[in-house]
Amino acid sequence: MNKGIKVFLLVLFTVIIAGGIGFLAYEVPRQMTTEAQQEKTTSNSETNDSSLSDSDTTTDDSDTGYILIGDSRFVGMDQACEITENADNREYVVAKVGQGYKWFVDCALDEASDIEKTHTWITKWKYVICLGVNDLWDFEKYRDEYLSLKNSHDLILVSVGPTGPSSDVSNDDVTVFNQQLRNFCTENDIPYIDYNTTITEEGFSTQDGLHYTNAIYRRIYEIIEEGMRGTAVSPSPQSE
Known about the structure:
Blueprint (H helix, E strand, L loop, with lengths): L2 H54 L7 E7 L1 H10 L9 E5 L5 H18 L5 E7 L8 H12 L3 E5 L12 H17 L4 E2 L1 H8 L11 H18 L9
Parallel strand pairs: 1-2, 1-3, 3-4, 4-5
């Protein structure tokens, strides 16, 4: 083999080796990048699946309606907060001035039932009840009715609120009633909303000793809203 051919073969071999090294230098990182992208895509897919799963398990209360049953204080709260005028909130008020247990069983429950029948698109109902200021001595009757009603309805019971100095209703009697109501709710796993303690601590004002100002009614409604939308829990027995 002459010298020219040897030189040619040497140059050709050098070119082939250099080309192979260049191919490896390009292809190996590209393959690693592709594999990393595939792993990232898989990871994102798993994350998205997990998020979708979490979303699927989120509680939806769009089919739940609330019927607020009470006396003149709920009448005042309804007027101050325009609850019945807001059709989108699925809240309905059954309330009457000067009423208590007898009106509750003779009239209010029938009115609540009529609301259920005329709003068939709502499949779950919760009764939010605040009664007693007009007949604090009738707790035993309320207790028996609540026990019966609990078998067919979700109940949320609300404390009786405090009175001002000019009221004939004693706050000592209010405290006794609320303690009985609180204990009853705890024993029977019924949510209890205690706005009495909150507005007593924050301070409140009334129009006549019994009925609150609009600002206080709005504050009471905030507390009840928080409770009935799920943030209230059945409390342990304690002094009111």
